[in-house]
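If your schedule permits, I should be very grateful for your opinion on a structural question. Please examine both parts with care and let me know of anything in them that strikes you as inconsistent. The record follows directly beneath this note:
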Amino acid sequence: MKISLPIIFTAFVLFSAHTFAAESADAQIPSAETAKLRAASYDGTWSGTIKCLYDPGLWPEDECDIGLTFEIQDDTLSVQQVVRSKTGEETKSEINPGKFQFGRLATNAIAVSLGTGDDEDGTWVETWSFAMTLTDPDHMTVHWTRIVNNIDMPKDQKGSKFSSVGMGELVRKSPI
């Protein structure tokens, strides 16, 4: 007997819906703390440090960990970073001004920016992304990814294509 893919899919959906309904019926009423977290706003100024989980080592004089400040209002995000060299020198810059798309669902949010430009290596294209979750109304866990393609460079040349990844906590400094 041959069972078709649509029948398997329909059975899976019905089973999942039944399981979800049963679990939802058994769910407890949210506590006041849970309700406060769900209602918490992302709007405001947040800052903290993202610790590197992966660094391609292209800038050996710099520490990979970066200081970040987010300014969030509604669906607008601006990002400032501070990169510190191993000798303690700090370089501050705004990341892709006006280009971040920001969206939120309950306690989680995501921000993504795509950019392109030209420099001494030719044309580059990059993506910055931040996945966020509120741990309480004034603290968020952030996962950061940056990926760059220097499309005019030969793919086997160091720095042609690279990605950095990090994670950390930002603390609300002020509401907006």
User: Anything to note?
Assistant: Residues 50 and 65 are 6 Å apart (CA to CA). The first helix runs from residue 5 to 26. The beta strands are 44-54, 62-73, 76-85, 90-95, 101-105, 108-119, 122-136, 139-150, 161-174. The first strand starts at residue 44 and ends at 54.
